[in-house]
Amino acid sequence: MKVKFEGKQLAKRLALSFIAGEAADSVIFFPLAFLGVLTSAELLRQLLFQFVLITAIEIAFIPLTIIIIRNIKKIEEVDTYDNDNNYDVFAVFKHSKNE
């Protein structure tokens, strides 16, 4: 996302990252942990409540997160862009076909 946004809009990138990560975590964890223990309606209600609560807390801390990130970058004097990395999860299969 940093490359796509050209290093700008850190708050937006953080929020999108939090939302995507929390959604994946909730969709995977809740059914594994509670399927069969809770009714489907209660499972969905708990999943949504947890997703909204945790995401809201993470978004509320974005200003503090930005301050910490800026201070770390200033101390380390590093701001890395992963321009040449390939994050395609299927790249392993593509690479092995070409050999």
Task: Please write out the topology.
Blueprint: H1 10-34, H2 40-60, H3 62-76, H4 91-98
Radius of gyration: 18 Å
Helix content: 55-70%
Structural class: mainly alpha
- Helix count equals 4
Portion in strands: under 5%
Weakly predicted, low-confidence segments: none
Quickly count the domains.
Answer: 1
Give a count of the beta strands, DSSP E runs of length 2 or more: 0
How many strands, what sense, and barrel or not for the largest sheet? none
Order of helices and strands: HHHH
Distance between the termini: 30 Å
Mean pLDDT: 82
Query: What global shape is seen?
Result: flat
Structure, explained:
It is a single chain. With 99 residues, the chain is mostly helical. It has one domain (10-98). 70% of the residues lie in helices and 0% in strands. It contains four helices and no strands. The chain has helices spanning 10-34, 40-60, 62-76, 91-98. The longest helix is centred in the first third of the chain and has 25 residues, at 10-34. It starts with 9 loop residues before the first helix and ends with a helix.
Q: Could you give a short description of this structure?
A:
This protein has helices at 10-34, 40-60, 62-76, 91-98.
Features:
flat; single chain; mainly alpha; about 0% strand; about 100 residues
